[in-house]
Design a protein that fits this description.
With 122 residues, this protein is mainly α. It contains four helices and no strands. The relative contact order is 0.14.
């Protein structure tokens, strides 16, 4: 992979530069999707380890609770300790932010291409 191809996924073209070809744009979208998946996976690991070590849940229950919070559904198991309830509270807020960041990373190339295509100042 050339330096120019690598940099086209990492940096966006300036408004005076031509629109990125479709194949390169597709690779940019795939790259951003991989970053979004990585962000969600890292957040899932934080939740799994937190629920397991702080709340004392089994690994599978920890995965379930972390997944449900990241998916916007809410916790499944009842938490008994104050530390576990504090962790769940902060993790719920964190999961909401991670969701918004993931969506932003995922849609950034599409929004940029739309703005670039129609020469909209941003």
């Amino acid at each position: 992979m050339s330096t120019q191809q690598r940099s086209s996924r990492l940096s966006y073209e300036h408004r005076h530069e031509p629109l990125l070809p479709r194949a390169a744009f597709f690779m940019r979208v795939v790259f951003h999707a991989a970053i979004a998946v990585g962000i969600v996976f890292a957040a899932l690991l934080v939740g799994i380890f937190g629920y397991h070590f702080i709340a004392g849940l089994s690994w599978i229950d920890s995965l379930l609770n972390a997944s449900m919070l990241l998916g916007g559904m809410g916790p499944v198991n009842e938490l008994h300790s104050t530390a576990a309830k504090l962790f769940a509270s902060f993790y719920a807020l964190f999961a909401g932010v991670v969701f918004l960041v993931g969506v932003g990373v995922l849609f950034a190339p599409v929004v940029h291409r739309f703005l670039h295509r129609f020469h909209i100042e941003f």
